[in-house]
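lol ok so funny story. i was supposed to be doing the assay writeup but got distracted and ended up predicting the structure for this chain instead. priorities right. anyway since i did it might as well share w the group, maybe its usefull for someone
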Amino acid sequence: MKEKWQPSVRIVPPYFEDAAYIDALAGSVERAYAAAKVKPDLLVCSYHGVPERYLQEGDPYHCQCQKTTRLLKERLGWSDDKLITTFQSKFGPEEWLKPYTVEEVARQAKAGVKNIAVIAPAFSADCIETLEEIQEEIRESFEHAGGESFTYVPCLNADEPHIAALIGIIQSNLQGWA
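and the output, tada:
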């Protein structure tokens, strides 16, 4: 704020529904399913949670997550019963977006779903919340509740279709930029 010459700033809008991004997600799911020793019965799309009040105050994140899951389902050509949307990483005393991933995977196992896969579409790269929280805490919750086969679908990371999607998003947003 003390600078006299302010730089120009351009913010890329959320790309949760970008076709190339959805294609990259779908490709990662297809590869993970092809490599899985046991084909998952259910894909859990686990998004980072936020306090529920954000949704009540009009924040679009919850709707964007739901749309990403729907577009992924459509791109894969799957029925509604093959994917669910959940939210992870709750902390603090207030209610967060539900269902909570850690509780939902246990509920699914108790309901008879023995083989699941988990993907974290809101994370562009693997981090402690995907490598530790999903692959340890959430996996343990599923297995302790009777689940048998757990497949983790890695984040897109430096996957070529992901990088191509990001390049497309960047190029699109640079149009008309001086």
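The chain has one domain: 19-168. The chain has a mean pLDDT of 95.
back to the writeup now i swear
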